[in-house]
Structure formats: C-alpha cells, structure tokens
User: Fold Dihydrolipoyl dehydrogenase from Pseudomonas matsuisoli.
Amino acid sequence: MSQKFDVVVVGAGPGGYVAAIRAAQLGLKTACIEKYQGKEGKTALGGTCLNVGCIPSKALLDSSYKYHEAHEGFKVHGINAGEVTIDVPAMVGRKDQIVKNLTGGVAALFKANGVTLLEGHGKLLSNKRVEVTGKDGNSEVVEAENIILASGSRPVDIPPAPVDQKVIVDSTGALDFQTVPKRLGVIGAGVIGLELGSVWARLGSEVTVLEALDKFLPAADEQVAKEAFKVLTKQGLTIRLGARVTGSEVNGDQVTVSYTDAEGEQKIEFDRLIVAVGRRPVTTDLLAADSGVDSDERGFIFVDDYCATSVPGVYAIGDVVRGAMLAHKASEEGVMVAERIAGHKAQMNYDLIPSVIYTHPEIAWVGKSEQVLKAEGVEVNVGTFPFAASGRAMAANDTTGFVKVIADAKSDRVLGVHVIGPSAAELVQQGAIGMEFGTSAEDLGMMVFSHPTLSEALHEAALAVSGHAIHVANRKKR
Assistant:
C-alpha cells in the first residue's frame, strides 16, 4: 500500500522546502523528496542556494572582504594591523560550517512543522503519483492530491571548457579552492562570475573575466552597469567583453584558453578556470513519458501565472519554470502555490522581484531600468544621489556608487530603484516596499529618514526626481 499525502514536493531547495513548510502550516499532510548528498554523505536540504550557491558564496565574499579591509582599508581609520595573511582552508571550513548549520536548520523546521522527508530521487508518474528511488536503488511510489515540482537548476556546461573540478571548475568547485590561484580565469561576466571572481581577486588572484556579450550587465540599468564596470576594473578584475571562448587545453596544473574577440584569435593561460555561463533547469528523469506535464526544448516546465502545469493538481516553481532564477522568487512561488492548494487566492507580483549582485560595492535593482522604460516610450524623471555626499558612507569609508530613482513623468509613480554602493540590496528593498504600495517619488521625499544613514541616499534620490535634493546640487531643468 503506497503512502498518500495531500501535497508532495519534489526538491528541497528554497522553492521546495518553503512550499513544504507552508503547506504543512496550512494543515496539509506534506512530504518533500530530496536526493542531494552533502559533503558528509548524508541528505542535505536547502538545494543549490544553501549548499553550493547563495549562502556559501556570501560567506566567502564576506571573509575575503574582511581580509581586503584589513589589508587595504584599516590604515585610513588609524588601525595598524601588521602583516595580514589569509588561511584559505580555515575560510572554506567556516563556509562549510555555516552551510551545515543552515541545512540542519531546514531539517529541524521540517520536524517542527510535521513535513515528512523522503530521501531519494523523485520522478512524476501519471495519475499524481511520484516514484522515489533511494541511493540504494530501491524505490517506492507515493500518491498525492497535489504535487509541486521544485527540482531547481544546475550550471550550464560548455564544450570548449569541460569541467573536471580540478583545473576547470564550475561555481561549486570555485567555492572549495584550498589555495589562492595566481592566475584565475572566469568565463561569464554574470552574477556568479563577478561574485566568485571578486572573492579570489581580493585574496590576490590575477582575475580575467571573458564575456561573450559585447555589453556588460545588460539586465542592469546602463548607468549602474557603466559604474560597475569602472569600479570592478579599478579593483583589479580584467573584464574582456565580446570574448567568445573556443577551446581549452589542460596541461598539468594549468589551462590554456583560446578565445576570439574584436582583435581576432587569442590565447591566455590560467592556473584555474571557473565556468559561470548560466544555469539550466534540472529535469533529467523528472517526468515520466506519460506524466502529461509539458516542457520546452531547454527543459523549462510550462506553467501559468500561478505556477500550475498542464496537469490539474501538478505545479512547478523556481528555476525549473519561466522567470528569474532567484532563490527569493522560488520561495515566494512556493508560498503562493501552497496557499492556492489550501484554497486561498494568493498571487505574486512578478514585476517587483529585486535582483542583487553581491560584489563590493553591491549592485541591486527593482522595477524597470531607464533604457527599458525609454524603449517602451514611457516619459520619466530621474533622480540620483551619490554616496560620496552621504555622511554615513563617509564615516564608513565606503563612498563608491549612487542611488537612482526613476519615476513616471506624468504620475510621479516610482517605476525603478537602482543602486550601486554600500548596502545596495537593503536600500533597493526599501524601494520595493514603497513600489508595492504604488509610491510616488514625492511620497518617498516626504518621509522622515533617520540621520545619518545610508537610507538617506534613497530619500535624496527621490527628492532629486523633482529637483528638490538638499545635499547635492540639483540638475537644472532644461
């Protein structure tokens, strides 16, 4: 007799585990299937994000920035620390401990909320049944009224640079270097490539980023992207745009990469190479031929605005469906689906999902960029405020970048908030809160912001939209 549940979730990443917890909170008998094994050979929850993505990369970013600060930034504060060295295995060990704490935390939350964990690979069969195959090869079939597919994504492989996790690594391998590579190559100038590149650059690597596109950070606002390129280059990252990798040859402990750019064919040698050219959905052996769920040629599962698939009672969320491949997007989709299964009319605002790149300075945005709005024919007013004019940023010796607020010229409604600078992610979230309530730039300008804070930069940028900024000269209206 097979086990029966109200909800079965396939995958325990930020989409799946959140969906499972919320479904259980709503009184639904819930199971979650996960096959990922952590470093200790035990099932580890949290998906890519907790194990080999968002969390471990932030741990390394923070450790490497503290090292950089001690090395480069203490003197200005009058602090003399003597010679500062980095113990890479200790840094990586701390990262592993944080991952262990968090994945263990998800397991505890499953227990607290009564979610049944099924360890193994989940495969959707017909008639709302899921086959669970354990690592010993034994399988069982469970039944559910509702099924949520949350199988996530994996790094894209490219034939010119096959990953061996020794010399040529993907984003997972780049989190486990035991020494600082002297010469580090990164294929891809996206979020992952820039974050990992900046970690090792701070620790002393000569980092070269090869990006096939001619444009840097095309998803970001052009003004922000331009500043980011300038700042990251100044920090020591060599970013080569329009550089298409054509091949690689590993020779012992180094790799020679061939690529073409505007100047023709080029070759460059590295001690390590990170391949960070994007991610693709994990749908391998997820859907039985007669499951009825449709996906496209890239493996993305077709869903509607509420994450329902072509089969009633079967949903899909997160990286395996359309939209941004972001942990917070997956989590909110998980909540929405769980609530809809429980009979609530939950929905999600896909227009206001913040994006963040955790370099230093951080780069973040929510809403639309100036170039997108102009292409759509929307007339806008723009206000910016530089952190160089922020007392709090000066006190912290962290004055790079600016806040940009874009408002509709007719209604004054805020359509985008874009930040490069200290705590960019937190400031953009303030913008997102206001935008969810339909804020105007004038509304933000009329609010009282505490002084001295970095948040005042958002306040001033909102005032600057109508030429009313106090702490920076306003642009003359033509």
Remarks:
- The first strand starts at residue 4 and ends at 10.
- Residues 374 and 380 are 8 Å apart (CA to CA).
